[in-house]
Amino acid sequence: MEILFNIFHNKNISIMRKITLTLLVSTFLSLVTYSQIKVTFKVYTNSVKENESVFITGNHSELGEWIPNKVVLQKTDSSLWTKTFLFDEGEFLEFKFTKGDWNKEALTDDKTVPANYKLTVIEDTTLTFRINYWKDEYKINIPDTITGRYVHIKNFDASEIQDRDIIIWLPPDYDSTNHKRYPVLYMHDGQNVFNPATSTLGFDWRIDEIADSLISLGGIPSLIVVGIYNSGRRFYEYSNTDEGEKYMRFIVNELKPFIDKNFNTLSDRDNTFVGGSSMGGLISFMLGWEYPEIFSRMLCISPAFKIRNVDYVSVVKKYSGQKKPLKVYIDNGGVGLEAELQSGIDEMLKVLSDKGYKLNEDIVWIKDEEAEHNEIAWSKRAPKFLKFLFDKN
Q1: Mean pLDDT across the chain, nearest whole number?
Q2: Fold of the CATH domain 37-136
């Protein structure tokens, strides 16, 4: 850059100095903006078959946004799998390892499902793991049980998206032969809702036990809960993408009519609810917002309203129509990924307020500063959000 100053000695020198200074500043800012930190993952394992691969999956787009077969590690010798990523300083990562499917998740040495591994990116780091056991090779001692009556439909036929299992939990007083009809709550990530044996981390939401108890004690009216299993396309189906639009159409145009036809439901909007966590919290909000004639209340647990390449806040902000007749429950924690989600939640609350939605009337927001981003934390808050569905205020 100094050469430019030495060469030009005419009336244009001030212009060249400005250009040079601009270039220097731009270069400096680009170095600051794009300075990233290397994180290398090394996985040693001798228990991977010849036709199998090791994948990393986690809460970052570089890690596949929890899609278990998206980010494959590179095999460098007979037992080592590795990959290096670049992350911004200060980013909080949660991640796990699989062989391409949640049923082939890596286990701990005591053959249990581990909690998410966690890392705050501060400096160049190499993380080393040794995996001796995988879920598909060992029977894990997790109880395979659901409290109460339920119907499990395998591979429910979907016209635009991947077929998936549906599990319908029925209240204790359900009798298909009488005339009583019931409200319905549709929940995403259905394998995590009722059964610890099918859940991702070995812990379910315990909606079956909690709802059964609340109904028996008179805390809430009887209701039907429909759990919709997710797929390997979870991130895309649960966000404002073309696949998200297809997933919503599947629920509204295919699944709900089937449930209303085959079970004793109250099919009107005042008795039709939707809920989920994280990306499931986002798609729950989207279903209510896009289909207010179908859903009246949304449960948005730890919702990913705006984070990284996901942004539904701007969609709501651009809306200029009449206030939609919706009731929204939002809750979140304050630890790890929960802290990352907070700014998007704050923005959504502000936008909804600007649209005329009032806190403690149209919106309930609860924050548990000590809560993490997992089914155990969400289960603890389940009695609150189940009661919200029937709050007449």
Answers
A1: 88
A2: Immunoglobulin-like (2.60.40)
